[in-house]
Specification:
The complex is a heterodimer of chains A (114) and B (117). Chain A is mainly beta and 114 residues long. Helices cover 0% and strands 56% of the residues of chain A. Chain A is built from no helices and eleven strands. In chain A, the strands form two sheets. In chain A, strands 2, 4, 5, 9, 10 and 11 form a six-stranded mixed sheet that branches. In chain A, strands 1-3-8-7-6 form a five-stranded antiparallel sheet, with no helix packed on it. In chain A, β9 and β10 form a beta hairpin. Chain A is globular and about 45 Å long. Chain B is an all-beta fold and 117 residues long. Helix content of chain B is 0%, strand content 47%. In chain B, the strands form two sheets. In chain B, strands 2, 4, 5, 6, 9, 10 and 11 form a seven-stranded mixed sheet that branches. Chain B has a four-stranded antiparallel sheet with strand order 1-3-8-7, with no helix packed on it. In chain B, a hairpin with a 6-residue loop joins β7 (65-68) and β8. Chain B is globular, with a radius of gyration of 14 Å. The chains are: A mainly beta (114), B mainly beta (117). Chain A binds chain B through residues 4, 30-31, 33, 41-45, 48, 50, 88, 90, 92, 98-107, 109, and chain B through 31, 40-45, 48, 55-56, 91, 98, 100-103, 105-111.
Chain lengths: 114, 117
């Protein structure tokens, strides 16, 4: 079945440092979504990428979708303590009969030291 | 606009007991999802409904898990009997609807944290 892997599993940074998490799928994706889950909270949608090579920005967050639509990344510039949480990518497999089914990565846990 | 509502928020039961979770999706959302999230892992889909029809239940352990969405709105997820390994967070999510080739944003509820002793 489809697998979505994220690295690193954990990332500890000093406030002001940059952070990047990477997402890789075993299969070509139709699109990919990113979610953030605060400690004790539930996943909250951040963004969706659909096009090959697409880059989207949300303030200090930059999201990229690979040319082959099998990988993606989230980069945070100058982290703040409010960025703390777990960042999940979730991919929708291209083709087949499983449309509508998102496969989540295991997430990257970000801690930010003030 | 109210978000996805789930109850209870927490549940502690002894193994072999039954347990049920309830979800009320965002008004107008046709698609409803039940996920299981273990500690340190991403959500794993258990079942997806399009209105009242279960269109993907391939990951639902049907020997002990059941779900229903009788009127295409609220949904319940039941475990009977519960096992120690069922301890996890059960998340409900909803979206407007799935169209071929696209993926709607999923809005998650707060989840039900289940502890089986």
């Amino acid at each position: 079945g489809q697998q979505v892997m994220q690295i690193p599993q954990y990332q500890h940074v000093q406030e002001g440092e940059d952070f990047t998490t990477y997402c890789n799928s075993s299969t070509t994706l139709s699109n990919i979504q990113w979610y953030k889950q605060r400690p004790g909270g539930h996943p909250v949608f951040l963004i969706q990428l659909v096009k090959s090579g697409e880059v989207k920005k949300q303030k200090r967050l930059t999201f990229q979708f690979g040319e082959a639509k099998k990988n993606s990344s989230l980069h945070i510039t100058a982290t703040q303590t409010t960025d703390v949480g777990t960042y999940f990518c979730a991919g929708l497999r291209a083709g087949g009969t499983s449309y509508g089914k998102l496969t989540f990565g295991q997430g990257t846990i970000l801690t930010v030291h003030p | 606009e109210a978000g996805v509502v789930q109850s209870p928020r927490y549940k502690i039961i002894e193994k072999k007991q039954p347990v049920a979770f309830w979800c009320n999706p965002i008004s107008g959302h046709n698609t409803l999802y039940w996920y299981l999230q273990n500690l340190g892992q991403g959500p794993e889909l258990l079942i997806r409904y399009e209105n009242e029809e279960a269109v993907d239940d391939s990951q639902l352990p049907k020997d002990r898990f059941s779900a229903e969405r009788l009127k295409g709105v609220d949904s319940t997820l039941k475990i009977q009997p519960a096992e120690l390994g069922d301890s996890a967070v059960y998340l409900c999510a909803s979206s407007l609807g799935v169209t071929s080739g696209s993926q709607e944003t999923q809005y998650f509820g707060p989840g039900t944290r289940l502890l089986v002793l």
